[in-house]
Amino acid sequence: MLEKIREGSQGVVAKTILVLVILSFAFAGVSSYLGSNTGVPAAIVNGEEVSASELENAFQNERSRIEQQLGEMFNALAADDNYMNGIKQGVLDRLVADKLIDQAASKLGLRVSDEQIKKAIIEEPAFQTDGKFDNDRYLAVLRQLGYQTTSFRNMMRVDMTRRQLLNALVGSEFVLDGEAKQLAQVQGQTRDIRYLVVDSTPFLSTATVSDEEAQSYYDANLAQFMSPEQVSLEYVELNAADMAKNSATTDEEVKAYYDEHQSQYQTPEKRLAAHIFVAATDDESADKAKAEAIAAKLNNGEDFAEVAKTDSDDQLSAEQGGQLDWFEQGVMDPAFDEALFALQQDQISPVVKSEFGYHIIKLLDLQASQATAFADIKAKIVAQLQEKKALDVFYGLQSKLADTSYEIPDTLSETAQAVGGKVQTTALFSRDNVPAQFNNPEFIKAAFSDQVLASGMNSDVIELAPNHVIVIRMKQHTMAGTMPFADVKSGISDRLKQDKANETAREKAAEFMAQLKAGNDTLDGATLTALPNLGRFNQDIDQAITDKAFKIAAPAANSVTIDTAALATGYAVIVVDKVNEAQGINDNLINTLKQRLAPQYSEADYRAVIATLKADAEIEYPVAE
C-alpha cells in the first residue's frame, strides 16, 4: 500500500490501474466480492469480515513476492516460524487497513461510475493491440486469469473507489521551497571543531565489581538474559559420499570398465584451419562472384596465404595468412564445420556459404583423436565405480531408513540397526547457531517442528544435499527463558567494569571541559585534535563525535561551545569553533529534495490516516475454538 502512496505522489497511480488490480488480485481471487465465506474470519472490522481464505491467499502472494526478491536466502528465513508469522501478521494488518479505507470511502460517498470503469479498461495497454482496445484480447486475458467480465468490473469498482481516497490524500500533500531549502542548509552545513578522546581502557585494570553488584544488575535486567529455544537431537545419517570412500574396487574391475568405455576417454580430433572470407552484403550475387573469383586464383596456383592477405574480409586472420585456430568438430558454423572436417591436410575447400558470408577453407594441420592412457585415468574410474556402488547401496538403505523410522517412531535404535549405522547426537543449539553440517532450511524446520518437539516422534527423511539424508528425533529441548546467573555472571562483571571505566573517563573528560571553559587551552597531558569543515556524514571519526558536534549550539561571535559525548569505550570532549553555511544550494538541489520529501510526507499522512481510522474502529481477531 505504501508503494501506491509513492506512485501517487509522482502522479502515475491512475495510469496503470488495471495492471495494479491484476497484481493485487490475480492470486488472491475475488471470493470477497462474489459471496460469503465460511469458517472463523481472520478479522472483523466494524462488523465486516476479512476471511481466513482471503488472508491465506494474500499471504501466499506476499510469500511468493519475497521469495522472488530474496532467492535462496528466503529458504533459511522461511524455516523460522516466528519470521513467517510476522510476515503473515503484516499481511493481515494491510488487509485490515484496506477494509478501513473502503469503509471510509463509502462514508464519504465516493463512487466509481460504469463509464469510468469502461474508460479504464479501454485505455489499459494490456487490453490493446497496436494501440487500440481489442475486445477479443480483453476477454482472452480475463479467461486466462479466471475472471468473468461482471466480477472483474466489480473488483475494479472496489479498487478504483479505494484509490479515489488514496489519490486525494496524496494529492493534498506538497513540499514548500522553504522546507527543501532549510533541509539543504542543514544537511550541507559544516563545522570547525576540535576534539579530545579520553579512552577508558587504561581505567579497566582498576575497576572492580562485587558479586552483589553483578547480582543486582542481573535482577534488574532479566530481559537482557533471555536464552532462545534450544534443542539437542539424535540422528541417523546416510551419505553416499562417505559410503563411496569405503567402497572396494579391484584392479580387474577398473580395467574392465576402462576397456568397455574407451570412447569416453578419447581426446577429440582437432583441426587447424585457415580461411579466406567474403563478408555478406546486400548483394548476394556479387558476394558469391567475388568468392568464386578468389577460388579461381587458388585453382590457378596462387598461394593461399598471400591471397588471404590481399582478398580476405577477415582482417585479423588475413594478417596471419588466413590462419584461424584449432577446432574440435561441432564448434564452428555447421557449413564451415562440415567442410573443414571433410578435408585432407593442405587441401582447400570449394566456396562454402555460411550465415556470415562465403568462406574458402584450408586444413593446415590436424591432431588425431587419442585414447587417454589407463594409468592417467585409473583414479577417476575408481572414483566413478565407488560412487556407483555406493549409490546402489544408498538407495536401498534410504528406503529402509524411511520405513523403519516411520514404523518405529519413538526411537532411532532400530533404524540405525536396519541401515548399519549408529545413532549420533548434537549439542544443544538454537535456530541461530545450527551446526554447520546441518545448516539447511528443511533440517531447521524439522528440528523445531511439532512432530519432533511436541510429539517426540522421529522426523520424516530430510535431504541435506543430493544423496545425503538424515532422520532426527529430540534428545533434549529447552524452551526460551532466562539464563541462570552463574552462566552470565562473567559477562555482567565485564560489562560493569567497562561502565565504571567509562565513568572514570567521563569524570576526566569533565575536568578537561572545565579547563577549556575557563579559557585554558593547554590541557594537562592531552592535546585537542583540530578538524575543520566537518561534514554531517563524515566517516573518518567516531560517529558519536560527529553527531554530538552537530547537536551542540552554534557559538556566538568570538566564542566557542563545548560539550562531551559518550563513546563505546570512553568519552570525547568536543569544541565547536565555527559553523560554516552550506555551499552550492541551487534550484536543482532544492527540486531533488522536494521530490525526496514528497513521498515521505505522503507515507506519513497515510500512516496517520490508518492510525486514526483504527482508533475509531471496532476490530476483532477471532480465535478458532
TrEMBL record:
Belongs to the PpiD chaperone family. It is found in: Cell inner membrane. SUPFAM superfamilies: FKBP-like, Triger factor/SurA peptide-binding domain-like. It comes from Shewanella litoralis. It comes from the Bacteria. GO terms for molecular function: isomerase activity. The chain crosses the membrane at residues 12-34. InterPro entries: PPIase_dom_sf (IPR046357), PPIase_PpiC (IPR000297), PpiD_chaperone (IPR052029), Trigger_fact/SurA_dom_sf (IPR027304). The gene is ppiD. Pfam families: Rotamase_3, SurA_N_3. Gene3D superfamilies: 3.10.50.40, Porin chaperone SurA, peptide-binding domain. Keywords: Cell inner membrane, Cell membrane, Chaperone, Isomerase, Membrane, Rotamase, Transmembrane, Transmembrane helix. PANTHER family: PEPTIDYL-PROLYL CIS-TRANS ISOMERASE D, PERIPLASMIC CHAPERONE PPID. Its main location: membrane. This is Periplasmic chaperone PpiD. Residues 268-365 form the PpiC domain. It is a single-pass type II membrane protein.
